[in-house]
Write a structure and sequence with these properties.
Largest sheet of chain A: 7 strands, parallel
Radius of gyration of chain A: 21 Å
Low-confidence stretches of chain A: none
CATH superfamily of the largest domain in chain A: HUPs
Oligomer: heterodimer
Helix content of chain A: 25-40%
Order of helices and strands of chain B: EEEEEHEHEHEHEEEEHEEEH
CATH class of chain B: Alpha Beta
Number of strands of chain B: 15
CATH class of the largest domain in chain A: Alpha Beta
Helix content of chain B: 25-40%
Bound molecules: flavin-adenine dinucleotide, adenosine monophosphate
Strand content of chain A: 25-35%
Structural class of chain B: alpha/beta
Number of domains of chain A: 2
Strand order of the largest sheet of chain A: 7-10-6-1-4-5-11
Distance between the termini of chain B: 54 Å
Distance between the termini of chain A: 52 Å
Chain lengths: 320, 247
């Protein structure tokens, strides 16, 4: 059986978890097994709808303690369930939650882990999982030699496949320990699309000259339903919040579309964005290294070009 | 207070990524090795700050690797720390490395174990969590702020689309990222002092590897950029819509 862990935020399943569910269903199909899911704490979503992604059964574990994330407790509950359900492959999404649980599960279940997977495993000869390495500059195919395998899937690297059907819901009991970590507060940037899961990202660099000019970035992002990002110096000089910093030392993202405005495209910046499907670069310097990594580009002054792009997007979106 | 900081050796951020031996090994010729940036800038510097506030703090650095790691270990000692330990081991899979770290940590009875958020070559984000599970300790990943308070610590960690503040008891494992501290450059006194600080080499404990690299490959080269006239932004939007199907 292939078991997928569904990660939720405020009682709602994350988009990355639907990708993981769909991926788990495909892995199960490949192995001739069934795919099931586990979700901890209370959920507001319709869990039977997971059948759409190929999940046969959703195991729910409700307990007040589980409404707050604690990697140690979550690991114990998932490991116990995985053992009693005889899971051979466990799939998680490689989000901050997944990154906190997957390695613990690996130790607890003596199961080899590949984190940051970007494709379905190759099961033709052993069990090999492709992952992104060298900060997106290369891939590695990693063989797992243990009998139980754990895969943590990078967000935005697997396209959800809908197959239809309803999932059965089954309540599972579990021993839940007292947490050693107390969550004092959670601060969410409300309304925004989380950068790591965004389909489209509009990003600005030092070429935008100052925070007062970010209206160009946020307006374009708003029209496209995109998240906003920035280069490291922009976050370092506090033009933009730190959590928007992408690159080698910031967040690594892989959206469908990445629009870089006034960013030179230093190798450390590219490391965080080069897995994007389509890259658009707007830079006034034709020699900017970013053009080498781009699919589309405009050599021009952002302050003249971006307003034109905004108008053109408004036109095709039918916004006045 | 006893702190262990785990440091790994990675290729410089500008290193050319290429592979040898039939694409099974990283081609290290001419590559400059550095301390993994997250380990150096955030984990190590924050630990040094804690020691500066309370000089009775014992700060140990740990690397799992072969003798080629020694230059980066000395560089780390030049920033700070009392002594370093190298577990003599050819680095392969995450579980093996974590098992070595856990063995040293158990022996040393540390209150705090700091790692970086991830290595910039393997991008595993795994070792901190594995060490915590091996030692049955709580683990806070992606920490952006860390402060000792009473008998425990207050830690801010990054979560998707925001941050979370946690209160934890010690001993504790923390993976560190941007925000924890500011990068430092070692000074002459530090560099001279690092030469005489102890660097203990210990033998690896026996473990089974769970994973192994089968092969590496590079992403296919981009077809080349399609440039659009700056006066014709509509054409760019049309291409994104019709050709790339991205908007
Ligand atoms: C170890 C290490 C790690 C690093 N990690 C990261 C990281 O994670 N992320 C990151 O981003 N950087 C990182 N850096 C920094 C990186 O090397 C670059 O310095 C940085 O990315 C440059 O940011 P930028 O492109 O915004 O600024 P600049 O390099 O100053 O480029 C500004 C660009 O804007 C263009 N421009 C100027 N005016 C206009 C205009 N009016 N219209 C259009 N274009 C204009 C210019 O031609 C130029 O190309 C790291 C560096 C090191 C050494
Ligand atoms: N060989 C090593 N020796 C010591 N610490 C390591 C080693 N490899 C990784 N680490 C630590 O574990 C963190 C996460 O590594 P990884 O799981 O490979 O991304 C790094 O930032 C280091 O702090």
């Amino acid at each position: 059986m292939v078991l997928v862990f569904l990660d939720q935020s405020e009682g709602q399943i994350k988009k990355a978890s639907y990708e993981a569910a769909s991926y788990a269903a495909k892995v199960a199909e490949q192995l001739g097994k069934s795919a099931e899911a586990i979700i901890l704490g209370s959920s507001k979503d319709d869990l039977s709808a997971l059948g759409k992604y190929g999940i046969k059964k959703v195991h729910t574990v409700s307990n007040d303690t589980l409404n707050q994330f604690d990697a140690q407790i979550y690991t114990k509950v998932i490991a116990e369930a995985a053992s009693s359900l005889n899971a051979e492959v466990i799939v998680l999404s490689n989000t901050t939650t997944g990154k906190a649980i997957a390695p613990r599960l690996s130790v607890r279940l003596k199961a080899g882990l590949v984190s940051g997977a970007v494709a379905l495993p190759d099961t033709s000869n052993g069990f090999t999982v492709r992952k992104s390495v060298f900060s997106g500059k290369a891939y590695a195919n990693i063989g797992i030699s243990t009998s139980i395998k754990i895969i943590s899937l990078n967000p935005n690297s697997f396209t959800i496949v809908e197959v239809g059907g309803n999932a059965e819901i089954a309540a599972l009991s579990a021993t839940v320990d007292a947490p050693k970590i107390e969550v004092v507060s959670v601060n969410k940037v409300s309304g925004d699309v989380p950068l790591s899961e965004a389909d489209i990202v509009v990003s600005g660099g030092r070429g935008l000259k100052g925070p007062e000019n970010w209206g160009l970035v946020t307006e374009l992002a708003g029209l496209l339903g995109a998240a906003t990002a920035c280069s490291r110096p922009v976050a370092d000089i506090h033009w933009r919040p730190h959590h928007e910093h992408v690159g080698q030392t910031g967040l690594a993202i892989a959206p469908n579309l990445y629009i870089a405005i006034g960013i030179s495209g230093a190798i450390q910046h590219l490391a965080g964005v080069n897995r994007s499907k389509t890259i658009v670069v707007i830079n006034k310097d034709p020699e900017a290294p970013f053009f080498k990594a781009a699919d589309y580009g405009i050599v021009g002054d952002a302050f003249e070009v971006v307003p034109k792009i905004i108008n053109a997007v408004k036109k095709i979106k039918g916004v006045a | 207070m006893k702190i262990l900081v785990c440091i790994s050796k990675t290729p410089d951020t500008t290193a050319k990524i290429a592979f040898s031996d039939n694409n099974t090994k990283f081609a290290a010729d001419g590559v400059q090795w550095i301390i993994n940036p997250y380990d150096e800038w955030y984990a190590l510097v924050r630990a040094i700050e804690i020691k500066e506030t309370d000089p009775s703090t014992v700060l140990h650095l740990l690397n799992v690797g072969n003798a080629e790691s020694e230059p980066i270990i000395r560089k780390a000692l030049a920033l700070g720390g009392d002594e370093a330990i190298r577990v003599n081991c050819d680095v392969n899979d995450s579980f093996t490395i974590a098992s070595q770290i856990a063995a040293v940590a158990k022996e040393g009875n540390y209150d705090l174990i700091f790692t970086g958020k991830e290595t910039i070559d393997y991008n595993g984000s795994s070792i901190g969590g594995m060490v915590a599970e091996l030692l049955d300790l709580p683990y806070i990943s992606h920490a952006t702020k860390f402060n000792l308070e009473g008998n425990g610590a207050i830690v801010v960690r990054e979560i998707e689309g925001g941050e979370e503040t946690d209160k934890a008891t010690l001993p504790l494992v923390v993976s560190c990222q941007k925000g924890m501290a500011e990068q430092r450059i070692p000074n002459m006194k530090g560099i001279m002092g690092a030469r005489t600080k102890p660097l203990k080499v210990v033998e690896a404990v026996a473990t089974d590897a769970y994973t192994s690299v089968v092969s590496f490959d590079l992403p296919p080269a981009k077809a080349g950029v399609k440039l659009v006239d700056p006066e014709n932004a509509e054409e760019l939007v049309r291409l994104l819509n019709e050709e790339a199907k991205a908007i």
